[in-house]
Amino acid sequence: MDLLKVRDHREMADQAAVWFHSKWGIPAGAYAESMAACLKNQKGVPQWYLVMENDKIIGGAGVIENDFHDRKDLTPNVCALYVEEEYRGRGIAGGLLKVICADMDDMGVDPLYLITEHTSFYERYGWEFLCMVQGDGEPGMTRMYIHKNKTAQAEEE
Fold first, then answer.
1. With a threshold of 0.85, does the pTM exceed it?
2. pLDDT digits (tens, 9 = 90+) for 72-115
């Protein structure tokens, strides 16, 4: 398996946009637009990451300003994390999260946020429950998590 940063693999952007669309139902054009911004800016937000095996995307995630929720002040957000079902349980999502956090930390982007309905998965990888947020167009509330790098944690102490 290989973990690719889309900014370093321009040729993967279109395929990645279609793949993420197939998993989350967000228009492929929205992903393509975000990836184009990633390719143009190279550093900072947005960023996109892929996990590949034998030239096939088996997982991925992004970092965007806001993952469709009402707390616009809690930014940026890890989004669209997905691992193909047949590859789950192998630590791929956790490895992807670690790479994303380290990469964003290297760019000076900290903390990171994400929204999820999961209640125990992200804690395994250093994420902490922060609050409940209202998803755009969603009737109920969803969980918001935060991840701080070690430097930010040390500064708080």
1. yes
2. 999 999 999 999 999 999 999 999 999 999 999 999 999 999 99
Neighbours of 96 (CB within 10 A): 22
Alpha carbons 13 and 19: distance in angstroms, whole number: 10
Contact 109, 44 (CB under 8 A): yes
Burial per residue of 52-74, b for 16 or more beta-carbon CB atoms within 10 angstroms, e otherwise: beeeebbbbbbbbebbebebeeb
Distances (CA, A) of 102 to 17, 99, 131: 23, 5, 23
Q: At what angle do helices 28-41 and 13-24 cross, to 10 degrees?
A: 140
65 vs 57: CA distance, rounded Å: 24
